[in-house]
Sequence to fold (220 residues):
Amino acid sequence: MKLGAQPPAGVFFDLDGTLVDSAPDLVAAMQRLRAELNEGPADAAAVGAVVSKGGRAMLRRGFPDADDARIEALLPRFLDIYAADIAVSSRPYAGIDAVLASLEARRIPWGVVTNKAGWLARALIEKLTLTDRCAALVSGDCLPQKKPDPAPLLRACELAQVAAADSIYIGDDARDIEAGRRAGMRTVAAAWGYLAGEDPYTWGADCVLATPGDLLAALA
Fold:
């Protein structure tokens, strides 16, 4: 499936579950947190499935009996543990390097728009040596609004000096597709990501792709 007849002006990615497989390090942080509290291991698959939903969603899976107050109390420690080993096992998904190389060879800027906190997003991008290649990084605390609001995507297009209407946003969560559509961008649902049991075909994306390799072909 082709994403339009003309090459995109810019291509923007969600971070966790789209550009980077970060679940292993987040699950490891959850297990260390439970060990600190003298609790048994969490259900790793259940935690990993909701990585794209954010830290609170992961904690609800890791501590299924916790109320909202306890979740809020646990969140800072969970993030500190994660930050200490943020890229031990996290890697770009197989095929992403080829996608980025192809975009760069064609002088098409690419960037990241994530709801992840900036101090974590910047650290992860830096550890993966992507900082100097990334034309825009808009994190969850850059603006008052977060996805599914379109403002972060529009800000990324501004930073990369491209028109939103001529650009593409790729994500593995319904709010990614909603944000992209509201920004006037073409949208791709990344079915290789953390879908949490959801059907990406119901999100209204311009296309749903199974692998980053499919994305490379679609952008060709």
